Structures are given as C-alpha cells and as structure tokens.
C-alpha cells in the first residue's frame, strides 16, 4: 500500500512538472506575442497620428486648431474603427500632459468602464500613460490608471505632445493557460486513477507473488537446519544469517547483526581473519575453526565457504557445521581405545584388581553382617524365628552375588563370555587401524594393509579381536621406534584348511632369544614399566576363537606375529581349556 502511495505521488509530480513546464513555456510565447502585437498597435497608431497631425498642421491656419482638428479626426476614425485583436479587456488610450495632470483624450472601445478623465501627474510614475508621456517606448507589465495589472505597450506622439497606450489585462492573457493547466491536471488525475486501477489489477498480484516467493525462500533460509552465514568481507559484519546459526552462537538476531567476525571467532586474530577472508574471496574453501558463543563456550566449527554475489557485490557465503559433538565423540573413542591399549599396563591392572576386590568384598561384608545378626536373633530368642530365616536368606543372597561375580570373572578371563558372530576380518582390520590412528592422535598410521579380497566371514568377538590387533600393532610400533626404516604391514589371507590368517609384520628390533623362550607367558617383558601380559592375553583371546597365535622372525629383520581364525569357531576341546 505504501508503495502504491509512493507511485501515485511520483506520477503526480511527473505530470505536474511536465504539464506545468509545457503550459508555462506556451504562456511565455503567447505573452511575448501579445506584447509584440500591442507594441505594433501603438507604433502604427503613433505613426498614423503623426502623419495626420503634420498634414493638418500644414493645411490649418493656427496652432490650436491643427491639434484640435487632428484629435477630432483621430477620435472620429476610432469611433468608426472596429477594434479586434485587443481581446475583452484591451484598450487603446490617448492622453496629454497638462501641467501637473494627465488628461485622457481618448479611450477605445468607449464606455467599458467609467473612469476619471484626469489623473494627477505624480499619482504613480509606473503607470503606462505616465511612461508614454515620458517618451518611453516598449512593453511593460504593471498597474494601469485603475490599479489593474495590465500588459501595456507605450509610445509618445511628439508632434502632438501626447502619449499612446495599448493595453490588456494580464488576467485575460493568463486565462486560457490557467484553463489549459486545469484541463491537463484533470486529465492527469484521470490517467493516474486509471494507472492505479491497472496497477492494482495487473501489477499488484505480480508484486504479491514476488513477495510471497521471496518470503518463501526467506523462510526456507531462516529455518534451514544447516547454519548459514553471509559475511561482508570488508566490514566482516553479517549480511544474512539464519536461525540455525543463531542457535549455535546463542545470540539474538539483533545482537548478531551488529557483530564483526572477530567477536565470535576464537581461533584467529583480527589480522588472521582479514588474511583468511582475502584468501577465501579468491578461492573459497573448507576449514575448521573455533567460535565463542554468547555464553563464552567454545564450539568447534567446520566452515565451507565460497564467494557469491549479494545485492551486486561479492560476499563470503559460509555453510557451518558444528562439529563439537563429533570431536567430543572422537575424543571419547580415542580415550576408549587408548584405554584398551593400556589395559595390560601395570597401574591399570592394579586399578582393575582394586575394583574387583571391592566388588567381592562388598557382598561378603554384607553377608557377614546378616549372619551375625541372624546368630544374635537365634541366641537371644526375642524375635520370631521368621526374622532369623529372613536374615539368613539375605546373607545367602549376598554370598550368591559374590559367587556370581567370581563366576562371571572367571568366564571373562577364560573369554567364554565372548559372543562370536560371523565377521568380515578385512572390515574389522580397516576399522581397527582407523581407531588405532585416532588413538595415537595421528591422521593415519603408516601401516600397509595387504588384505586378500573375498575372504570368508569367520566367527569373531569383534572387541576381543580388535584388542589383539591393537596389542600386536602397538608392540610392533614400539619395537620399530628409532629404527631407520620402519615398515609395518597388516596382512590377511585365506587358509587352505579353512578360515583366515592375519599377520602383523614389522621391521623392528626383533625378539631376543631370551624373551622368545617365554614370549607368551605372562609377566614377560623387555619394557620398563610394562607388565608383559599383552601377548598372553592375546593368545588366550585367539584360542577362545579356536585359533592359534604364534610368531616368527621377519626375513627383512623384525618380527611377524600371526594368528589363525577357523571358519567353524572354537572347537569344544580347544576353546577355553575347560
Ligand atoms: P609388553 O608389551 O607390555 O611388554 P607383551 O606381552 O605385549 O607385553 O610383550 C612382551 C614382550 O615381547 C615385549 O616386552 C617385547 O620384548 C616382546 N615383543 C612383543 N612384540 C614384539 C615385537 N613386535 N618386536 C619385538 N619384540 C616384541
């Protein structure tokens, strides 16, 4: 609606300007023409009067007569003359100066208006007749003897000592143009009204559709679940952003609209931001950074940026991914697998033992308390026998709890609790190597994977197998630390007798004869601070799968640890050694 009002005002201003200027120009031309006509009238009259006067003067006897006769002739001629061309208000006037008075001698056409025939000479020096009697020739706009504004032409007739004025009311000259202006204004109003209606009928629906479409896309943008930010590369102020972005940072729309990038960018300095934006504006790109939320929390942010044109200028369009949770999850995974790796180390084992002792001691202490209470009840005989049996039941419940725990621990140590499920060894190897990389903090480990394709699935306990693999890889990496050409290969192959074989081949220090003799026995280690039970645990896990774990020297130097996994799972006798 406001737009329509503006449009109408603009159209009116244009019409008024064009119409007004046209009418004014035409008026100026007509005015000048009218002035010219009046000048021509007084000039021709003056020449005529002079000619008549000279003729009468030549033929008459005395001075007085020839002036009077001339004037009489002029008056007669004017009485006969049909004045056209001076319009409704036009007048032709002849006057003479007599001392301090102006005597009006002739006014044509006669009787238009009863006016005084004599006016004082000093009444108004700007009146047309005054100027004519002063000998001023030309056109002039000003008040006449009756005070009406007129367009007048003045001329003097020197022979007769008279002044001539031909004049026309200015209002009469203007009248047709005022009329024309009003007609133009009326036409303009009608045209504007028609234009408005046409705009409503044709333009408005189009505009509304455009507005709806814009609103639709704005809604899509605003409610997109992906945070989007468009930044002015010069001011670093946001040009556009959606609700998802505000949700990441916790600002309100108005607050964020005034924030330069440096306020919430937590990784780069202002100088680095400017350099980075310059680079992005040339090549775009993807990078990780950190943002500070309104509450001061730090979020890890992945930015995909590119240059787009927005309102005719290049801006940086960034799609944001909040990877804080992903990074936290990765950190947890790292921690978990680091934990798996460290499981065999002494202090961890100590902690585990402390936990186990606690788990067993707690129910036994409770059982002891219940049996003591039961004995007291029986000895004192005050409570009913049901009370004693209730306490005894509670004590046996606690003992059962401890017994169950020890039983499950035994099963765990014997790996009988491991649920074996058919698994793709190659997939498990790849996944474990990625996790080992995460665990080591490296983007990827320099491990060569030599995996035979289309291996059969074999029954495996995935976590147990991962633990074995991680142990062997860790041992290999530790053995290669400081060697000039470390090369670690994890190889899978199909076994002729069925099942698969997995080898971890390193070019490390190799295994000394002394260690080799007791390699798979627990507490055998060459590393200070290690418990040396990793390999014995690995062997027991592989044997729980019905497989075998062994080692052989690597022909290139170093050691090869291999294990087999049968296709049919643990043999009843092989399995756990029960
Ligand atoms: P830990 O690694 O805690 O010492 P392990 O049972 O895993 O316990 O290993 C026992 C010992 O076997 C190690 O201390 C090391 O001397 C030796 N060993 C294991 N794997 C390798 C290997 N790939 N290369 C050389 N020595 C190894």
């Amino acid at each position: 609606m406001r737009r329509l009002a503006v449009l109408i005002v603009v159209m009116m201003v244009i019409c008024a300007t064009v119409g007004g200027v046209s009418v004014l120009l035409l008026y100026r031309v007509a005015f000048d023409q009218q002035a010219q006509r009046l000048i021509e009238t007084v000039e021709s009259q003056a020449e005529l009067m002079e000619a008549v006067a000279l003729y009468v003067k030549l033929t008459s006897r005395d001075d007085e007569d020839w002036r009077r006769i001339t004037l009489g002739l002029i008056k007669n001629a004017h009485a006969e003359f049909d004045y056209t061309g001076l319009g409704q208000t036009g007048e032709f006037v002849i006057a003479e100066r007599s001392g301090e008075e102006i005597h009006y001698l002739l006014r044509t056409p006669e009787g238009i208006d009863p006016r005084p025939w004599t006016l004082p000479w000093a009444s108004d020096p700007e009146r047309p007749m005054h100027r004519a009697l002063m000998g001023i020739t030309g056109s002039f706009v000003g008040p006449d003897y009756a005070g009406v504004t007129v367009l007048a032409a003045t001329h003097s007739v020197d022979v007769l000592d008279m002044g001539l004025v031909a004049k026309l009311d200015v209002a009469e000259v203007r009248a047709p143009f005022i009329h024309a202006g009003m007609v133009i204004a009326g036409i303009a109003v009608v045209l504007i009204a028609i234009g408005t209606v046409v705009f409503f009928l044709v333009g408005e629906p189009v505009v509304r559709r455009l507005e709806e479409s814009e609103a639709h896309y704005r809604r899509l943008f605003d409610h997109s679940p992906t945070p989007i930010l468009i930044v002015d590369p010069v001011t670093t102020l946001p040009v556009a952003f959606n609700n998802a972005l505000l949700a990441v940072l916790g600002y309100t729309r108005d607050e964020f609209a005034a924030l330069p990038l440096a306020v919430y960018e937590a990784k780069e300095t202002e100088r680095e931001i400017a350099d980075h934006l310059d680079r992005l504006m040339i090549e775009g790109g993807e990078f990780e950074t950190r943002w500070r939320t309104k509450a001061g929390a730090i979020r890890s942010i992945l930015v995909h940026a590119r240059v787009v044109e927005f309102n005719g200028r290049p801006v940086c369009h960034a799609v944001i991914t909040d990877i804080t949770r992903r990074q936290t999850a990765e950190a947890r995974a790292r921690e978990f697998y680091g934990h798996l790796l460290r499981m065999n180390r002494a202090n961890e084992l100590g902690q585990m033992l402390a936990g186990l002792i606690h788990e067993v001691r707690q129910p036994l202490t409770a059982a002891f308390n219940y049996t003591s209470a039961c004995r007291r009840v029986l000895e004192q005989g005050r409570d009913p026998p049901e009370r004693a049996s209730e306490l005894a039941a509670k004590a046996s419940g606690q003992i059962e709890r401890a017994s169950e725990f020890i039983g499950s621990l035994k099963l765990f140590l014997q790996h009988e609790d491991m649920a074996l499920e058919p698994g793709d060894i190659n997939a498990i190897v790849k996944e474990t190597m990625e996790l080992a990389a995460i665990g080591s903090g490296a983007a990827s480990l320099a491990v060569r994977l030599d995996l035979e394709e289309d291996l059969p699935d074999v029954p495996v306990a995935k976590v147990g197998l991962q633990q074995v693999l991680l142990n062997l890889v860790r041992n290999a990496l530790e053995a290669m630390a400081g060697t000039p050409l470390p090369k670690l290969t994890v190889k899978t192959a199909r076994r002729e007798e069925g099942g698969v074989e997995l080898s971890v081949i390193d070019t490390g220090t190799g295994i000394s004869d002394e260690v080799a003799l007791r390699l798979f026995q627990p507490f055998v280690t060459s590393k200070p601070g290690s418990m040396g039970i990793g390999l014995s645990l690995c062997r027991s896990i592989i044997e729980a799968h019905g497989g075998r774990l062994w080692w052989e020297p690597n022909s290139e130097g170093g050691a090869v640890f291999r294990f087999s996994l049968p296709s049919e799972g643990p043999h009843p006798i092989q399995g756990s050694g029960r």
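The two ends are 90 Å apart (CA to CA). Confidence is low (pLDDT under 50) at residues 344-348, 572-578.
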